[in-house]
Amino acid sequence: MSDFGLYVHWPFCAAKCPYCDFNSHVRNAIDEKGWCEAILREMAHVAVLQGSDRPCLDTVFFGGGTPSLMSGKSAGRILEAASRLWSFAPDIEITLEANPASADASRFADYRAAGVNRISLGVQALNDADLRFLGRLHDVAEARAALALAMKTFERVSLDLIYARPGQTVDAWKTELAEALAFGTEHLSLYQLTIEPQTPFALQHREGVFHIPEEDRAADLFEATQEITAAAGRPAYEVSNHARPGAEARHNLIYWRYGEYAGLGPGAHGRLRIAGRSVATVCERLPERWREKVIADGHGFVEMNEVSPADGAREHLLMSLRLAEGLDLAAYLARWGTAPDAARIADLVAGALLSPESGRLRATRRGMLVLNSVIAALAE
Ligand SMILES: C[S@@+](CC[C@H](N)C(=O)[O-])C[C@H]1O[C@@H](n2cnc3c(N)ncnc32)[C@H](O)[C@@H]1O
Ligand code: SF4
């Protein structure tokens, strides 16, 4: 069986970035202790749902929002409570997403003492003009300082960059990416800027304030990303994620391999095995409402639906195509008792979007570029 992970959503940010549609909120002041207590209550509820035959915990991921606004003490309380409910795998991966703003970086030693062993740092860009455009609160110097401190404090460090920014040439991106790789982090998440509906960027983009790269240039930027990271020993193992082989984010692999995870906190999603059935959970999105619900009901779930085998099989197929390793067809058949549609696959292989090998279903480089349409074609 695959790993079991715990996702903890910390929904607060110091400022809202204009491109971001994550469930993140700016509040003047928060009662951090009270928010932690709500997470602990919801965690205990999940453990009760799982019953006495609980899996061993392989990964924990503090995501956000900006979990690095949380104190080390809070992270420690959450981890300690988790260790009372689940036995921790000896090599458990515990990741915390951090923002490079210096106030947050000063907490790194506390996170480490609390048990965090992997940091994912939101660097986003390595030039100040673009950081300002992205509405970030840090500059390049702060990002570099935070990265240096992270690498001194943690064995495992990842950094996030957003590329395909307005006006970004392939040459400029190559230089910036080479600089990012020179830090030597074992893992990088490299996202193409997407214009999300209902964000300030969506409005500005519609009004022509800026233009993002056309499809052809975006494809060139993607190609350059694949080549440069592979040459630097950090090949893509997922559409936007690159790692030294063996240093992949185990937590995220759980999602893409369609494994089991609990999702705690506002807006978090989970997929649990309860009494032999697969159950999808969704928490109330608005932080204050989520907390009120936890206080009233012991959990913030607004949806808890059994996943039918047909839905599970389809979701598993779609998630795994994001991975360079693709889908193991024999394991898939054993798990779901069904194989992906052969005629649709043949069409996509003929169009060079899926690779023709037997035993595994894998998107080609070209298929990865248009993955959403490959997925749509398979899901029809
Ligand atoms: C929850 S944030 C990471 C932690 C922290 N909040 C931060 O921003 O530094 C997750 C990542 O998603 C990426 N992201 C968010 N919105 C995006 C968008 N519209 N286009 C591309 N990447 C995006 C950013 O790289 C960001 O670091
Ligand atoms: S990108 Fe990160 S810091 Fe910015 S609003 Fe989104 S979650 Fe918050």
Structure summarized in a few sentences:
The chain has 380 residues and is of the alpha/beta class.
Highlighted features:
380 residues, alpha/beta, nine-stranded mixed sheet, three-stranded antiparallel sheet, 16 helices, 21% strand, globular, binds S-adenosylmethionine, binds iron/sulfur cluster
Question: Order of SSEs, N→C?
Answer: EHEHEHHEHHEHEHHEEHEEEHEHEHHEHH
Strand content: 15-25%
Rg over CA atoms, rounded to whole Å, is: 21 Å
Helix content: 40-55%
Spatial order of strands in the largest sheet: 7-8-6-5-4-3-2-1-9
DSSP helix count? Answer: 16
Separation of the first and last Cα atoms: 29 Å
In total, the number of strands is 14
Low-confidence segments, given as residue ranges, are none
Which structural class do you get from the secondary structure elements?
A: alpha/beta
What overall geometry do the principal axes of the alpha carbons give? globular
